[in-house]
Design a protein that fits this description.
This protein is of the alpha+beta class. The two termini are 30 Å apart.
Length: 182
């Protein structure tokens, strides 16, 4: 579900990088636009396809455009580090403590009763997997924020198997560069 919104994200936010470093909105925007890719958790099958794909087809181009890419999950950093190491990701992977940023963007959902029962029956309740104790997860979402703190592009899907194509993100960031040059 693609849409373009002009929302204000001037209110600061903090994320916790998997190595423990605090990442602030201001520091992330210091060198250029910010691209946030929300994903579910380190063991999510679709996330283990999407993030390495973004590492190959999105991260290098964003770096040449001066944009910072951050993969974000509510999963606690000590469990989230697994996906960064497994795929040798070249971009930041961070934890959104208590889904605070995902909540601000309105991209969260809660496991329905059948999904919750299935995860419990499988021996891995989602709240235990993520370390959050809740069944709340972000939808796959990609958000581009310009240097002034405004959201200039947002794409999300209620289907956890659907992610944003790298070309869409690159085009959005290029438009920011064109706008800045004008």
């Amino acid at each position: 579900m693609s849409l373009v919104i002009l929302a204000d994200v001037r209110q600061p936010f903090e994320l916790i990088e998997v190595g423990g470093e605090q990442l602030t909105r201001d520091a992330l925007l210091k060198n250029g636009p910010l691209v946030l890719v929300f994903f579910r958790f380190a063991g999510c099958p679709a996330c283990n396809i999407a993030l390495p794909y973004y590492n190959l087809h999105l991260a290098p181009e964003l770096a040449t455009l001066g944009a910072t890419l951050v993969g974000i999950s509510p999963q606690v950093p000590e469990r989230l580090v697994a996906i960064k190491k497994r795929h040798k990701l070249d971009f930041l992977i961070a934890s959104d403590k208590d889904n605070a940023l995902g909540r601000r963007f309105g991209i969260l959902y809660t496991f329905d009763k059948p999904s919750k029962q299935s995860s419990i029956a499988g021996g891995a309740p989602i709240g235990e997997v993520t370390g959050t104790g809740t069944g709340e997860l972000p939808m796959p979402a990609t958000i581009v924020i310009d240097e002034s703190g405004h959201v200039r592009f947002a794409d999300f899907s209620p289907d956890w198997l659907v992610g944003t194509e790298p070309g869409e993100v690159i085009d959005a960031v290029r438009k920011l560069a064109t706008r800045a040059a004008a």
